[in-house]
Design a protein that fits this description.
The protein is mainly α and about 550 residues long. It has helices spanning about 1-30, 40-50, 55-75, 80-95, 100-120, 125-145, 155-165, 180-200, 200-220, 235-255, 260-275, 280-300, 305-315, 325-335, 345-355, 360-380, 395-410, 420-435, 440-455, 465-470, 475-485, 495-505, 505-515, 520-525, 525-545.
């Protein structure tokens, strides 16, 4: 009893007298973006955690609050060392000592969040892969906790009484409620979505939809208002439905299944009803709902969906609607009506977004090229001289030239994802070859497109994702590029043959690279050659979706 009382007093002194005020000041500095006071506060937090006099559970409690502080500090202070230190602390926590269920879920999800932040900064695929592994384990633990039978009410009272008088690893953690388990499942879906957006691994999208559906089903099983740490019902439930609907719209773009887009529209309608108008996720909800409504309106030929999308944008984001929702409404409505109405306004919005040169400027550049192409096509088909139109029409040749130039800029931007550059290069080659088949620009466009094929369908993707990415391009891409080389004033047959071979053997050349002869390595270092052979077998089996089941039960390589 004396030891328990002494521990309780130590906890009160640590938490109330020193730790809690410091934590409050640190988070206030983060909210105010006070970059002058934040470095000193981060140093004080780290000094308190490093004191050996504190018991292990106290240091772990401080560390769990320190990780989000370090993430915010790396953003505000533009110091990547804070993020690296947060990852080191998270990894040390997972390997220092055996963890109970609740602590393991918290620590794995926190470390995964740190790795995702570093992946978004540096683009290292290892970080996002490890984050997915951590979140998958945490999600499995949450599902096991949900499926486990609940203890009798007397045992629950005993546990609460024991936790009130015994300070240990679990007592200082927030209770593992269904709200927290829901957040882990939602985070798992979000990290899978992140890797899909960057790397275009098709299976990630399917798994993200499944994880978000699990989170949505769990969110219907309890009352958020009375769940410890769960937040408001409207915000949490609305965020769940919004994320699931956004993933369904992405899957609709790939598979063109009308059930996905219809379901997404209904989910977002419920989310719009539940989420408060001034909520922090209100702008994101507006963007997702406009995307779903305009896609459904174009697919089902319903003009009223565009009217609803306009109303959502005015209500949810009247001050800063963003360029993408506005452009989606204008361009898709014009495509539904087979007219040029609104395309001039859409082009002006897109040119302003491209000029900002922000994180979405490459996407805006591709939208600009596609919008100019649509404008030129509709102008040629439905605008004979003398007809009155809503938008002033420039010369059609000028529109085609501006569209091709935008595709060219998008294809040659080396900082953009390879799959986006491949799409832009394919359209650039298609347009410029149709207009000037024997020009040097047509030859350049075809050459750029073919050389982007192995970069987009790179070895890190599984075979299914590689095939889907290659099928999304023009089937005659390599043939057209070779023909453009031969059609120039000074033909280049050698380059034409090189492009033809490169385009038709993307996947086959990767297999040849993997099966390189190891005789020389076998003579120099037999052990290394044997290990490399084993790695090849694992890689080849992992690339086949049907062979993935059961790989986790294998003993890892030493």
């Amino acid at each position: 009893m004396t030891t328990t009382l002494r521990s309780s007093l130590r906890y009160q002194v640590l938490f109330l007298a020193r730790w809690r005020p410091l934590l409050a000041r640190t988070f206030r500095a983060i909210e105010r973006e006070d970059t002058e006071a934040l470095p000193g506060l981060i140093g004080q937090v780290d000094a308190i955690r490093a004191q050996e006099a504190h018991p292990r559970w106290a240091r772990d409690m401080i560390r769990r609050a320190e990780l989000p502080i370090l993430i915010a500090g790396s953003e505000l202070l533009n110091d990547p060392q804070h993020l690296d230190r947060a990852i080191d602390l998270g990894r040390a926590a997972l390997t220092a000592h055996p963890l109970p269920l609740q602590a393991e879920i918290w620590d794995r999800s926190q470390l995964a969040d740190c790795l995702i932040h570093r992946f978004e900064k540096r683009g290292d695929k290892k970080d996002v892969d490890q984050a997915i592994v951590l979140y998958r384990r945490a999600a499995d633990l949450c599902r096991a906790a949900i499926a486990a039978p609940r203890p009798p009410w007397r045992e629950s009272i005993r546990r609460l009484w024991r936790a009130a008088w015994t300070l240990d690893e679990e007592a200082v953690l927030p209770p593992l409620t269904r709200a927290h388990m829901f957040a882990v499942l939602l985070g798992f879906g979000d990290v899978l979505h992140t890797r899909f957006e960057f790397l275009r691994i098709f299976d990630d999208l399917q798994r993200a939809v499944a994880a978000s559906e699990d989170a949505e089903a769990l969110s219907r099983t309890f009352a958020w208002a009375y769940s410890n740490g769960g937040g408001s019902y409207g915000h949490e439930r609305g965020a769940t439905l919004s994320q699931l609907a956004a993933l369904l719209v992405l899957r609709y773009d790939l598979l063109n299944d009308p059930e996905d887009i219809v379901r997404a529209v209904w989910l977002l309608k419920d989310a719009d009803r539940l989420m408060p108008r001034r909520d922090v996720g209100s702008r994101s909800l507006a963007r997702h709902r406009v995307n779903a409504l305009t896609a459904q309106g174009l697919a089902l030929r319903r003009l009223e969906d565009f009217t609803k999308a306009d109303a959502v944008l005015r209500r949810r984001a009247p001050d800063d609607p963003g360029w993408l929702p506005q452009v989606q409404i204008l361009t898709r409505r014009a495509a539904l009506a087979d007219s040029t109405d609104g395309l001039c306004e859409a082009v002006d919005i897109l040119e302003a977004a491209v000029a900002e040169d922000g994180s979405t400027s490459h996407e805006a550049l591709m939208w600009l090229a596609a919008t100019l192409r649509h404008w030129a096509t509709e102008s040629e088909a439905h605008s004979p001289p003398g007809d009155a139109v809503a938008d002033p029409l420039p010369d059609t040749a000028t529109l085609w030239r501006r569209s091709s130039d935008a595709w060219r800029r998008a294809a040659l931007r080396e900082t953009a994802p390879a799959w986006r550059r491949l799409v832009a290069a394919s359209w650039w080659s298609l347009q410029i070859t149709a207009a000037h088949p024997a020009s040097a620009e047509a030859a350049q466009a075809g050459s750029v497109a073919v050389r982007l094929l192995p970069l987009a369908a790179w070895r890190g993707l599984d075979r299914l994702s590689q095939e889907k990415l290659l099928h999304s391009t023009d089937f005659d891409l390599a043939t057209g590029a070779a023909a453009a080389q031969l059609a120039m004033a000074e033909p280049d047959p050698a380059h034409a043959l090189e492009l033809l071979e490169l385009g038709r053997g993307v996947l086959w050349s990767q297999k040849l690279d993997v099966h390189t002869d190891l005789k020389l390595l076998q003579e120099v270092c037999p052990e290394l050659a044997e290990r490399l052979t084993r790695v090849r077998v694992l890689l080849e089996e992992a690339r086949d979706p049907s062979a993935r089941t059961g790989r986790a039960r294998r003993t890892p390589l030493s």
